[in-house]
């Protein structure tokens, strides 16, 4: 144990940890020495250069053209309501034009108290979503999905009118930390 700790004389923390392991497991030293020695040696090894460390490397982005899957986009049909605004639309992939299923579309009221909970919907298999009971106000609309770049916009639905949106999401195709 002392020999392994002397490999890294500058690592005071490692020496202290080695002593702690010695004291705590005095009876079963034979099996513990190899593990503690390996831990001490590995913890004192020289840090890799930033260019070799994957945690410090720049992310790699895929720039090859995306191929469409043929997912048909359909906007749900909604009817007007006299006292409420109606919002309907579809979310599609910007590069391919395919429908995006499972994206979260949420609306948060901007005009009113900040404690008002957001209203949200998932998109269906054809990328469609709808909100049928919106009080006339200013809303912040957000669209999110894993693997896509999130989008946001401000909308103002009016009572007695159906507003239709077509939202495009760009794929996030960068990998790394």
Give structural attributes.
177 residues; Immunoglobulin-like; 3 helices; four-stranded antiparallel sheet; 2 domains; three-stranded mixed sheet; flat; disordered N terminus; single chain; alpha+beta; 28% strand
What does this structure look like?
The chain is α+β, with helices and mostly antiparallel strands. The protein folds into 2 domains: 2-46, no CATH class; 85-175, Carboxypeptidase-like, regulatory domain (Immunoglobulin-like, Sandwich). Helix content is 19%, strand content 28%. It is built from 3 helices and 9 strands; from the N terminus they run H-H-H-E-E-E-E-E-E-E-E-E. The chain has helices at 2-7, 12-24, 29-43, and strands at residues 60-61, 85-93, 104-109, 119-122, 128-134, 139-144, 151-155, 162-169, 174-175. It has a 4-stranded antiparallel β-sheet with strand order 4-3-6-7, with no helix packed on it. The protein has a 3-stranded mixed β-sheet with strand order 5-2-8, with no helix packed on it. Helix 2 (12-24) runs antiparallel to helix 3 (29-43).
